[in-house]
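EI: anyone free to look at a 321-residue chain?
SC: sure, send it
EI:
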Amino acid sequence: MTTYKEIKGTNIEIVSSDPSNTVEGQVWYNTTTNLVKGFGRSAVNAWSAANNSNSSHRNAGSAGSQTAAIVFGGRPSPGPGAATELYNGTSWTEVNNLNQARHYFAGAGTQTAALGFGGYAGGTLYALTETWNGTNWTEVNDMNSARGRVTGTGTTNTAALAIGGYPAPNAALVETWNGTNWTEVNDLGTARYSGSAAGTNTAALMAGGINSPTSALTELYNGTNWTEVGDLNTGRGYTGGCGTQTAAIVFGSNGTPKALTEIWNGTTWTETADMLTGREGIAGAGTTAAALGIGGESPQVSTEEFLGAGQPTSVIFNVSN
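SC: here you go
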């Protein structure tokens, strides 16, 4: 039988912690976890279970990447929450709460520079905006129109886009944030709320949403105007999403296709691997290569990680004595 050393020219490494500079085909034994691991690339798009959040987050705000995400607010029973948590790629840690508990609102930015805006609490619609500096939330200037079920996108807490919302007068409304003030810009071509957005405040995508009763419509924003492009394969709302204007992912939904996942390549949407547990009101972070699905209903604490085909991944080997 051919040995690992004969193939690779070296023995399996013995280490106390997983190496950070791995290469494809590398294998090592971790004496701390007593596991034999290897490094390769994923063969297919796939979702996997990750550690649960500490608090319930349904229709929450979120931002960041798969290994550095933030989730805030949402709707733990019986009412809206203010809990904020950070994800490091392995586990969730509770940090300082929002100043105003809310759900059905939106987020943008990164784990250390996030923005939360709009939402509901106790039957009240909010125009409230809060900015996160990595430690605390601070109230800043309000949106021009109070609304819930708003969709948001943006890669920093100084440049974001608020799209659609509820009630109906706000369903096509779009506002852009410059770090100080919100400014109304051109409306969506088709009014809707609780869809998924991706990209920046000058190069955004809005997909799906609720519009008598659901929509499959996708629109692109170039900083001035919205343009209709290829529809989702399945119309739905209350989805999670993340990515860029040319490479986005949408997952979860209301209704029956709750586990459905679709990927956008800049031209068309393609159905790919379903989530392990279908949920609506789910929050998202990351990219099409490495996405995170957070909370939703139900369970509201569930977290899943999406890994795109061909992406680096670590494998745990089953080794018998």
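EI: Residues 46-307 form a domain with the Neuraminidase fold (CATH 2.120.10.80).
SC: 👍
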